[in-house]
Design goal:
34% strand, single chain, 180 residues, Chorismate lyase, eight-stranded antiparallel β-sheet, globular
Length: 180
């Protein structure tokens, strides 16, 4: 399975709050993917007619980027669990996702976040009655090959404990019909 050429430096880029009118910010094919506040996992499962899976690229403890630390309101020196995955539909990587979880979040019921393996984080987040989602931010990231990819991120709170989820929409997703 091809790996994306994104690195942690890509996520230290400039993120903009998603406000209307956003049509001047993001190209039309990406707008619905970028602005939907529902479960991306559910959209991808529908779009792939159930041929969907999560592949862990890497997971481990590390320091967040400065941008990620600011978004989480934590020190950039604080240890976090960083999980990077590919969301694959119909055998094709459609989304690269990076989750940054402060170690202080990994307590109580949220301890399970350390051990979700190839399960979708979205299925856990959107089933948790304590979940709150912060405002969406968007960015146009460039990978190591100079290819531009649109991304969004937001802070989620589970029992008032934060985690940051960034989702990068890979070029093959542009061919997939968005269905709400």
């Amino acid at each position: 399975m091809p790996r994306t050429s994104l690195t942690s430096r890509n996520f230290n880029s400039r993120w903009k709050a998603l406000r209307r009118p956003y049509q001047h910010v993001a190209p039309k094919p990406w707008r619905r993917w970028l602005t939907d506040r529902g479960s991306l996992t559910q959209h991808l499962i529908r779009a792939s007619h159930g041929h969907f899976r999560v592949e862990v690229v890497q997971q481990g403890f590390a320091k967040p980027s400065l941008s990620e630390a600011r978004a989480l309101s934590i020190s950039p020196r604080q240890r976090t669990l960083i999980r990077e995955v590919q969301l694959i539909g119909d055998g094709t990587p459609w989304v690269f996702a990076r989750t940054v979880i402060p170690v202080t979040t990994l307590t109580g019921r949220q301890r399970q976040l350390h051990h979700i393996g190839n399960r979708s984080l979205g299925t856990i987040l959107f089933r948790d009655p304590t979940m709150r989602r912060g405002p969406l931010q968007i960015s146009c990231l460039k990978d190591q090959l100079g290819q531009q990819m649109w991304a969004r991120r937001s802070v989620f709170w589970l029992q008032n404990k934060p985690l940051l989820v960034a989702e990068v929409f890979l070029p093959p997703l542009q061919q997939v019909e968005y269905s709400p």
